[in-house]
Specification:
This protein is α+β, with helices and mostly antiparallel strands. The chain has helices at 4-42, 225-232, 277-281, 300-308, 336-339, and strands at 45-49, 59-64, 70-74, 85-87, 93-102, 107-112, 133-138, 151-167, 170-181, 194-197, 202-206, 210-211, 218-219, 221-224, 251-252, 255-257, 269-272, 288-292, 295-296, 315-322, 325-332, 334-335. The chain starts with a helix and ends with a helix.
């Protein structure tokens, strides 16, 4: 026969169970708006795997933006892989190819041979306002490799503003408006992920990491969906932004490097300026600069030191590694102003 104490304990346990059940039901109801939005984004956000080097991750996230395997992602060294791959939400992996890139948005359009009926319709993007809730869905830190769900961060939109950022030693070529928010998304693998409203509408794509050279702080931002829509349609996504005039002419090859680990990062080409000597010589994004004028280029610091010492108007031989091929080209040293024309 149960004692008074045991009966009291049973009632206490039962009461705690009821409270926990009610709390769970309340939490489920409270999270329902976010749950639907997250599920919507999970079915339209992919994992991308490619080439990594040094401390730079060989993986990222991407957005399905069309019914026939169209994928948008952020620019990165991983795109230079011979075996670039996209893993869809259901877990199946496909080979991917780069269709085109946007230097201003630091974005790339990929294509896989698969039907993707669940996709973000960029024409239906949200007009988010400051203080609105935002959710970021991405493969930060490679939490998922197959059909596992992606990670989710929550934050509040701060503002939409133009940025003309710099990263490391070289110009960081993002020159457009961006959505700034307080969710922490500047992490490996998050770039290319989805930023959505609490209702599930796409606000933008998590941008490539921008880090302050002076303070080491990073900017959490998204490339606006309307700019992505213009890029997807083949239009120029942004108007040219004004640049500050320089007082002295500097030697320039028309090459901008990735910033991989600061001054000691390898000298991978991020972009080649249109009309520059390097473009005319056939240099390409993702080429690795290994020598300039017979001088070995071990890292970004070597590249800057050697280029700064070149005489404007002279010819120089540049050697690059392109995948498994060593390529040597001859080009004439120009100035930064000449390369911008």
């Amino acid at each position: 026969m149960p004692t008074a104490m045991s009966v009291w304990n049973m009632k206490l346990v039962f009461s705690i169970a009821v409270i926990l059940l009610l709390a769970a039901c309340y939490a489920a109801d409270a999270e329902e708006p976010f749950a639907k939005a997250i599920e919507f984004a999970q079915q339209r956000t992919v994992k991308i795997f490619g080439a990594g080097i040094g401390r730079t991750a060989g993986y990222a996230s991407g957005l399905i933006v069309g019914p026939e395997g169209q994928i948008l992602t952020a620019q990165g060294v991983f795109l230079g892989a011979d075996n670039l791959r996209v893993t869809l939400p259901a877990g199946k992996t496909y080979a991917a190819e780069v269709v085109r890139r946007s230097a201003e948005l630091q974005a790339a359009l990929l294509k896989i041979e698969a039907q993707t009926p669940e996709f973000f319709d960029l024409s239906q993007s949200a007009d988010a306002q400051p203080s609105d809730w935002l959710l970021a869905v991405s493969n930060a830190f490679k939490v998922a490799e197959g059909k596992e769900p992606l990670s989710v961060n929550i934050g509040v939109m701060s503002l939409r503003m133009p940025i003309d950022a710099r990263r490391g030693l070289h110009d960081f070529p993002y020159h457009a408006e961006a959505i700034i928010y307080d969710a922490i998304t500047s992490n490996p693998g998050a770039d290319g992920g989805a930023v959505i409203t609490a209702e599930g509408k796409l606000v933008g794509m998590i941008g490539r990491v921008i880090e302050s050279k002076g303070t080491g702080t990073r900017l959490n931002y998204a490339v606006p969906a309307d700019l992505l829509a213009r890029f997807l349609a083949g239009d120029s996504p942004v108007e040219p932004m004004a640049t500050q005039p320089t007082t002295a002419a500097k030697a320039d090859l028309g090459i901008r490097l990735f910033s991989l680990g600061g001054r000691r990062g390898p000298a991978f080409i991020d972009r080649v300026l249109p009309g520059s000597p390097s473009e005319k010589a056939g240099l390409k994004t993702d080429d690795l600069v290994v020598a300039i004028g017979g001088q070995v280029v071990r890292d970004s610091a070597d590249f800057k030191r050697i280029v700064d010492a070149l005489s404007i108007g002279t010819e120089v031989v540049v050697e690059v590694k392109r995948k498994n091929e060593l390529i040597s080209v001859r080009l004439r040293v120009a100035t930064e102003e000449q390369d911008k024309k």
